[in-house]
Task: inverse folding
């Protein structure tokens, strides 16, 4: 999406002007005003200046070049898994994860008319989270860059046969009707967001009792490399709450792994586990240590 739909453009410019006046107070997000990432910023830091960006890479770039002090990025959903491309973008950005935020996600069907509707536009995550509802209504879900942008696009088109899956607040922002609320398939639908900044947090300076550390690693291409790499966490009693693999490049020779553990550098058990991990890895990089927003387990 090179430009925001016309109904969103004026609001975007106002929000960008506000962010330019105080970049340190700005938090960049992907999407149009009213997107779930915008809502997450409003929950996490009500006094922050939300800065809309067309894509995830643009939001991260806004932090890197100083137009925003941080970025709010969705990383995974409780029912639809990880957000596409994020595992590639975070390491490449050079930014550090400094916080996390969990938000309950509720989608509404919004439109110009009362329907019936043939098509509903939305972000692929929202479509995946409302798959049963769309099937029951005979509506085809089509991908858009973000949920709020989809609502703005429906308003711009003015077509009575199309709708959007978006936060209910977008109806008021873009002059649409809320046809039905809570159309997500699961009521415990939750998205985890991470907050990224240019500088990492010092683990020793985090006053909260529990911290989370996120890192990526690539094991050596030898038999049982992953098994050996994980052994240090078991023997040192370090709780690994997430481990996901993904391929980088076209070699298919070794997977890169994304992991979360409870604890941080400076904790003797964590230091021993990370030292053993590093021995079995070709690459190991910590993406950030930050307070735990929700207990795991």
Result:
């Amino acid at each position: 999406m090179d430009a925001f739909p016309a109904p969103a453009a004026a609001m975007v410019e106002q929000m960008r002007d506000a962010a330019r006046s105080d970049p340190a107070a700005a938090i960049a997000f992907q999407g149009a005003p009213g997107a779930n990432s915008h809502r997450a910023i409003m929950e996490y830091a009500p006094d922050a200046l939300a800065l809309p960006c067309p894509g995830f890479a643009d939001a991260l770039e806004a932090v890197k070049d100083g137009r925003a002090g941080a970025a709010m990025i969705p990383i995974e959903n409780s029912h639809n898994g990880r957000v596409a491309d994020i595992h590639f973008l975070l390491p490449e950005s050079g930014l550090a994860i400094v916080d996390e935020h969990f938000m309950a996600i509720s989608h509404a069907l919004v439109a110009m008319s009362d329907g019936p509707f043939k098509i509903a536009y939305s972000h692929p995550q929202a479509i995946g989270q409302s798959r049963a509802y769309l099937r029951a209504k005979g509506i085809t879900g089509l991908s858009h860059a973000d949920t709020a942008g989809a609502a703005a696009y429906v308003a711009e088109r003015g077509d009575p046969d199309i709708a959007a899956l978006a936060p209910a607040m977008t109806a008021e922002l873009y002059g649409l009707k809320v046809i039905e609320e809570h159309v997500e398939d699961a009521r415990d639908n939750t998205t985890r967001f991470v907050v990224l900044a240019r500088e990492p947090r010092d683990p020793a300076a985090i006053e909260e009792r529990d911290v989370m550390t996120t890192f990526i690693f690539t094991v050596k291409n030898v038999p049982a490399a992953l098994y050996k790499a994980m052994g240090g966490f078991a023997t040192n009693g370090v709780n690994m709450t997430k481990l996901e693999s993904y391929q980088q490049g076209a070699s298919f020779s070794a997977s890169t792994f994304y992991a979360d553990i409870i604890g941080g550098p400076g904790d003797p058990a964590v230091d021993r586990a990370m030292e053993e991990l590093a021995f079995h890895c070709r690459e190991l990089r910590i993406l950030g240590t930050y307070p735990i927003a929700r207990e795991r387990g």
In short: Residues 214 and 260 are 5 Å apart (CA to CA). The radius of gyration is 21 Å.
